[in-house]
Design goal:
Low-confidence stretches: none
Order of helices and strands: HHHH
Number of strands: 0
Distance between the termini: 62 Å
Number of helices: 4
Structural class: mainly alpha
CATH topology: Helix Hairpins
């Protein structure tokens, strides 16, 4: 039988716990703070360059994807830390692969930004 302490009693509890998780990442991860600043810059660029809705949607998706992968990266890192406090090659691989997902999402966002914003400037 599943431990009742691990279940949310109400639907709203899952939302509350989700926001707690997001807040944990923002409080503890320097990169998440940087990514939020960049997200604010992206919003500013959307307004400043008067981007259309489609361009804003692409940039918004790319920006959120970075933040989402950073959250998942933090989840993987904390889970690995829970399992071991000693160096293990497999633990390093798990952390590196999760970090790689963040890197790929950031590259994706840069490519999209180049197509949209740089295209507007020139």
């Amino acid at each position: 039988m599943e431990d009742e302490r691990l279940k949310n009693k109400h639907y709203i509890d899952s939302w509350i716990n989700g926001f707690k998780g997001i807040w944990y990442v923002i409080r503890t991860q320097k990169n998440a703070k940087i990514q939020l600043v960049i997200a604010a810059i992206v919003i500013f660029c959307c307004i400043y360059f008067k981007l259309n809705i489609t361009e804003c949607m692409f940039l918004s998706f790319a920006t959120f994807l970075i933040i989402i992968t950073e959250i998942m990266n933090t989840a993987v890192e904390e889970t690995v830390n829970l399992c071991t406090d000693k160096f293990h090659p497999l633990a390093k691989i798990a952390k590196d692969v999760a970090a790689g997902a963040v890197v790929l999402s950031a590259i994706n966002a840069v490519v999209i930004a180049i197509f949209i914003i740089v295209g507007r400037v020139f």
